[in-house]
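Hi R.,

Here's the chain you asked about this morning:
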Amino acid sequence: MKGRTVKLSSADLGRINNESGQPKFLQIADRVRELIDAGKLSLGDRLPSVNQIITHFSVSRDTAVKAYQELKNRGIVESSPNKAFFVSNVLIHDDLKRILLLTDGVTPYKEKIYYGLIDSLTPGYYIDFVSHSDSFDILKAVYERSRSLGRYSSYLIIPTSAQDHETEYFQFVNPGNLLFLDRRVHAVAHPAIWQDFSHGFYRALVAEVETLKKWRQCVFLTKFYTNTIIEEMQSGLERFAREAKMGFVRSRTRFTDREIQGKIAPAPGDLFIILDDHLLSELLAECAALGLTPGRDLGIIMINEGLLYEHLPVPISVLSADFYAMGAAAADFVMTGHVQSGPVATRLIVRNSI
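And here is the predicted structure, written out as tokens:
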């Protein structure tokens, strides 16, 4: 993080009360916080060095470091590898109720959850959007640290896709202010606002069967890995294909460009249902090389919306839950404790690619 270095006077930094019962490091943290609230320090600005804090307030190095660590714990500042400190958040106010949205990644459809949440909350809330990168170890570490700091009134957590550890861990966490999003965690008491990857996908395709039944076979295209969610998706897709009198193929590729290139082998009559932008890009390249036109020679459906799918030369159809509604339902939980029953709706958005 880079920002300007602000010249602060002794009057700007203020003083601490050596006779106060409040620890000195907290007083120093409050002085810096007051500068941020007053607009004298802005987002990205470099804070006074630890040595400057030591000299100005006549305190020990330990006290100065603890003051900045306190500001980091409050989510107000961050440090760089060279130990410089910068303002990282100017929106936190003590009178706001803070919510932790802990997601597996930052994607367009996860951002939809965020937008549904912030649009539906009444004033007085602040949301921290944090990614655990689909790692349970990171999820656990972020959750436990956040809980120990006591910052948050609500925890909204998207579990990992594999869910190897969630049930074992969260069965010992009391329900109350914790809500799972996008996926349920089985055998725990915590509420969830979730999508049905099997029946939801099946019903969404059945609703558009007249459009889809012209295709010869359904090809579920993923990379060479699996988890419970992918298996549930396959169950719903395979059921639809069987009832629609279509063939069904589960196709897997490796991971890198070199390993994927030329391996998808599209053919006329295929209806591809794809989970990965990388695979979509390669499929479109192979279609161009073979003279196949999506929507005419073969069909393409992506799972979950992408930023540019609607604006490609052949707009790409999308099979997706209503993530904005998921965020709105999460806001209702935050404000009232109420959780809707049943999964959020899944639908097929029909575009020219099918």
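One quick note: The chain has three domains: 10-87, 97-194+323-344, 199-321.

Cheers,
M.
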